[in-house]
Design brief:
Helix content is 54%, strand content 13%. It is of the alpha/beta class. The N terminus is likely disordered.
Length: 391
């Protein structure tokens, strides 16, 4: 008897494509595994660039084709920005840093890297990758202009893109955060001092200076427009430089604020921030649990079993939301959250280790335990935030 053939699998249907990930704009793809989005503000920039560049194109191409060529330039201009940001992303991933996304927006683009570079050398490489690509593209544009017999329209686009890449590359090398040049300064100061925070603070203050210079430059162009340019062009330049200056100022200020907060991390100690906890069983009425807490000058309630083992943390928000007249009739355990590994922390945690533990399991309250398992107290996210802000 012949062997029977193995059962065949039913034909598989084509699975529907995974939906595009949600993000800060229109999802356009995932080159090199990096999600790329285009902000709606880009379309406004595309219209402005098209209108401004169409005047130059009209000298070479008649309307309405001149508008199509001008719009093509707007697209190619942001393609240069896209390559700039993608260079940051690819370099970061090659150095082992996860990249969240690349976003193209009204002021150019932004690469979101989930972790900071661990060394000044890696910081330098990631920061320099973007501008160097623009400068290489500018050199290729110059070579194309000199060596290739291009038609007038193509020559116009090549020259415009060459200038744009020179401008983008040079501008991003300005020595102030959050620009790439500021990150290069941060890496240099970090290397010289051995302190990343010193580099960040120095580059952020330089960034504030760059923001002021951008605003002054825009005011100068509005007051003294280039010969042949209209006054409207000068005021548009002022508006644009004001947007850029505000972007740089806000980014530099955010860096200073972040470094100020980061400087407080080593002083954070779970024991110092903990609240004394009153331990009650789950069946104790809420009113009685609150009375005991007041009597013991405690700021938190912990549910324990009859053997004294912790079973839950009572939510301060839930207690506050419970009307006083109902508290004698509600068991305390009804307002508690069961403790698990993420909500149970060693009382000796401090500094970066404490922050990392809170990030791994975000919650409003955490139970602090002694090395022998006894309850030390309760740490609240509110108290940690106050320690950061200095309240």
């Amino acid at each position: 008897m012949a062997d029977s053939a193995p059962p065949t699998e039913p034909p598989t249907r084509n699975k529907p494509a995974d939906p595009p990930p949600t993000g800060p704009g229109l999802f356009i793809g995932r080159p090199f595994g990096v999600p790329v989005y285009v902000s709606p503000s880009w379309f406004l920039v595309a219209v402005v660039v098209t209108v401004m560049f169409e005047g130059q194109v009209n000298g070479v191409v008649d309307r309405p084709a001149s508008f199509a060529v001008a719009f093509a330039y707007a697209v190619l201009l942001y393609a240069s920005v896209f390559v700039h940001e993608l260079s940051h992303a690819v370099t970061a991933r090659a150095l082992g840093l996860p990249v969240r996304s690349v976003v193209l927006h009204i002021l150019g683009g932004e690469t979101s890297i989930e972790e900071e570079a661990p060394t000044p050398g890696r910081e330098f490489l990631i920061a320099f990758a973007g501008p160097v690509v623009n400068l290489v593209l500018a050199v290729l544009g110059i070579l194309a202009h000199l060596l290739l017999p291009l038609p007038p329209v193509a020559m116009l686009l090549v020259d415009a893109l060459t200038f744009a890449n020179l401008l983008v590359g040079a501008f991003n090398l300005l020595p102030g955060l959050p620009l790439d040049g500021g990150r290069l300064v941060r890496a240099a100061v970090w290397k010289a001092t051995g302190r990343a925070s010193s580099g960040a603070v120095f580059a952020a203050w330089v960034g504030r200076g760059v923001a002021i210079l951008c605003l002054v430059a825009g005011a100068f162009m509005a007051t003294y427009p280039v010969q042949g340019e209209s006054a409207a062009f000068g005021w548009l330049a002022l508006l644009w430089t004001a947007l850029i200056a505000s972007f740089i100022w806000v980014g530099a200020t955010q860096t200073l604020r972040t470094e100020k907060i980061r400087g407080r991390i080593p002083a954070l100690h779970a024991r110092r921030l903990a609240r004394r906890a009153t331990q009650v069983t789950a069946d104790v009425p809420l009113a009685e649990a609150i009375r005991r807490a007041h009597e013991q000058h405690a700021g938190a309630l912990v549910i324990v079993d009859h053997d004294g083992r912790p079973r839950g943390i009572v939510s301060e928000k839930a207690v506050t939301a419970t009307p006083e007249q109902r508290r004698p009739w509600i068991q305390t355990g009804e307002l508690s959250r069961a403790v698990h590994d993420g909500l149970t922390l060693p009382a000796d945690l401090a500094g970066e280790a404490l922050i990392d533990a809170l990030r791994r399991a975000p919650a409003s309250e955490y139970l602090l335990l002694e090395p022998d398992g006894r309850v030390y107290g309760v740490l609240t996210a509110t108290d940690v935030d106050r320690a950061f802000t200095g309240i």
